[in-house]
Amino acid sequence: MTELYDLHCHSNASDGVLSPTELVQRAHQQGVTSLALTDHDTVAGLPEAQRCATLLGTKLIAGIELSTNWQNKCFHIVGLDIDPTYAPLAGATHKLQKTRLERAEKIALKLEKKRMPGAFEAVKNAAGEGMITRTHFAEFLISQNHVSTQQEAFDRYLAKGKAAYVSTSWAELEVAINWITGAGGIAVLAHPLRYKLTANWMKRLLTEFKAAGGQGMEVITSRMNADEIRMAADYASRFDLAGSVGSDFHNQANPYVELGRLAPLPKNIKPVWELFG
Ligand code: AMP
Ligand code: MN
Ligand code: MN
Ligand code: MN
């Protein structure tokens, strides 16, 4: 059987639409043999995902996508092959749930001032026990006909600098990496080209990321063209980082993003899964 890895996706424990069970089932249908569930700042979906993965014979990698701050910008660090019960990490996720709840109140207040009331109740209900994210706000704005797409919701209200943006103190980059490595996991810089950094800033980021114990970066994500893959692979080899592959799947609505539907990792890049314990 050919191995197919997808090491980045979301369930409804954060801003994905599918339950952990539905997500693992879909991955299995798509031919994924190793799946990492990497919800935003939470490991709550992992037990359910593991139960389903065991039934289907899919290898589940315990993962998380941590929101971090570095140089006053937000960067996402994926932790792979973690022990989700590691106390400092588990403790951090509980604090982050509160951080996200408080941020949601502030975002809702800003929307209310723009005559868009009711957001807090709506996102709380939609998220349920899970993490409240800006994606939930985007869905609320769509449901109220304030915008017609998620992209428009971010462009008009939710993105940095827009009317309902609330800046948040996430964990510092090195602190988040320590949670991951302390949990026995591999810290991977998520979707490195999405931050729109100059080459110089990318170099600074990757240097500090490595110095703090980061070992991998996503070389393959959804919707990358050949030039982007070359650029990401080039960074990975220059900084001696293992390469990860992950769709960042959130829902079935986006035809360009599917579980396991990913370009192969370039041959000269060391696969991150070779580092798994
Ligand atoms: P949060 O972690 O709550 O700030 O939410 C970040 C999430 O919002 C990301 O993981 C994406 O899923 C989503 N997101 C961010 N920017 C956009 C965008 N421009 N369009 C659609 N979704 C976005
Ligand atoms: Mn997301
Ligand atoms: Mn991300
Ligand atoms: Mn993600």
Distance between the ends:
22 Å
Number of helices: 9
Q: How helix-rich are the residues, as a percent range?
A: 40-55%
Instruction: Label the overall shape.
Output: globular
Number of domains: 2
Beta-strand percentage?
A: 15-25%
Report the structural category.
alpha/beta
Question: Topology of this structure?
Answer:
Layout: E1 5-6, H1 20-29, E2 34-37, H2 46-56, E3 59-70, E4 73-80, H3 87-113, H4 119-127, H5 134-143, H6 150-158, E5 171-172, H7 173-182, E6 186-189, H8 199-211, E7 216-221, H9 226-238, E8 242-246
Parallel strand pairs: 1-2, 2-3, 3-5, 6-7, 7-8
Antiparallel strand pairs: 3-4, 4-6
Helix pairs in contact: 1-2, 3-4, 4-5, 5-6
Report what the structure shows.
Helix 1 runs parallel beside helix 2, helix 4 (119-127) packs across helix 5 (134-143) and helix 5 (134-143) packs across helix 6 (150-158). The chain is globular, with a radius of gyration of 18 Å. The chain has nine helices and eight strands. The protein folds into two domains: 5-87 and 170-275, Metal-dependent hydrolases (TIM Barrel), CATH 3.20.20; 93-158, DNA polymerase, domain 1 (Orthogonal Bundle), CATH 1.10.150. Strands 1, 2, 3, 4, 5, 6, 7 and 8 form an eight-stranded mixed beta sheet that branches. By secondary structure, it is of the alpha/beta class. The chain has helices spanning 20-29, 46-56, 87-113, 119-127, 134-143, 150-158, 173-182, 199-211, 226-238, and strands at 5-6, 34-37, 59-70, 73-80, 171-172, 186-189, 216-221, 242-246. Bound molecules: adenosine monophosphate and manganese (II) ion (3 copies). The site of one manganese (II) ion has 4 residues, from loops.
